[in-house]
Amino acid sequence: MRNLVLFGPPGAGKGTQSEKLIAKYGFVHISTGDLFRWHTKNDTPLGKKVKEIMNSGALVPDEITISMLQEEVSKNPDATGFLFDGFPRTVPQAEALDAFMKKNGTAIHYVIALDVSEAELRARIAKRRNESNRPDDEEEKLNKRVNEYFTKTVHVLPFYEKQGRLKTVNGIGEIENIFKAICTILEN
Ligand code: ADP
């Protein structure tokens, strides 16, 4: 079983690349953003708890996020590999993920970060705002999300880098070329 963390700021293209990776390699896709959106849309108890936080652009507390993720992994005992998208977003989440995978007799084999400048990602999200229908794509909330990334989530990069697990891919350019660069990492 091979497990991958796809890492990057909001608007880096994680969703687009995830779809292509799933089609090619059959990963079970676990996107904490999609899961939270499902819960808020269906008004579950968890959804009620996180709705306001998400809509403000802030990160959901680690405790809630980690337990939701573990539950989701446990639902897929036959998975041949997981693709984690939007998780981990804090160092405690990264530590919890390692511990959890170890307990399950496996590990995170690849951490691939999509590198996109702040200016480029702001421009991309501004563009998708019109089509996305996501309340957290509004300008002020987007600012909050980008700030959350640059204050909390970036610290996950040195966490993986120190362990020699981090690979960085330029996230600017043709979708197909970025995809090829990721596939090269996974196949070597
Ligand atoms: P983005 O486009 O910002 O990458 P996501 O769809 O991954 O968005 O996440 C949307 C929102 O869901 C985040 O702003 C946050 O409120 C919540 N969220 C998603 N993943 C996490 C996580 N790992 N930790 C905390 N909050 C999260």
List the helices and strands and how they pair.
Blueprint: E1 4-7, H1 14-25, E2 28-31, H2 32-41, H3 45-56, H4 62-74, E3 82-85, H5 91-103, E4 110-115, H6 118-132, H7 139-151, H8 156-162, E5 166-170, H9 175-186
Parallel strand pairs: 1-3, 1-4, 2-3, 4-5
Bound molecules: adenosine-5'-diphosphate.
Residues 10, 32-33, 36, 53-54, 57-60, 65, 86-87, 89, 93, 136, 145 line the site of adenosine-5'-diphosphate.
User: How much strand?
Assistant: 5-15%
Small-molecule binders here are: adenosine-5'-diphosphate
Cα radius of gyration in angstroms = 16 Å
Instruction: Give the structural class.
Output: alpha/beta
Which spans of ≥5 residues are poorly predicted at pLDDT below 50? none
- Within the largest sheet, what's the order of strands? 2-3-1-4-5
Describe this structure in words.
With 188 residues, the protein is an alpha/beta fold. It has helices at 14-25, 32-41, 45-56, 62-74, 91-103, 118-132, 139-151, 156-162, 175-186; strands at 4-7, 28-31, 82-85, 110-115, 166-170. The protein is built from 9 helices and 5 strands; from the N terminus they run E-H-E-H-H-H-E-H-E-H-H-H-E-H. The mean pLDDT is 93. Helix 4 runs parallel beside helix 5. It has a 5-stranded parallel beta sheet, sandwiched between helices. 57% of the residues lie in helices and 12% in strands. The chain binds adenosine-5'-diphosphate. Adenosine-5'-diphosphate is lined by residues 10, 32-33, 36, 53-54, 57-60, 65, 86-87, 89, 93, 136, 145.
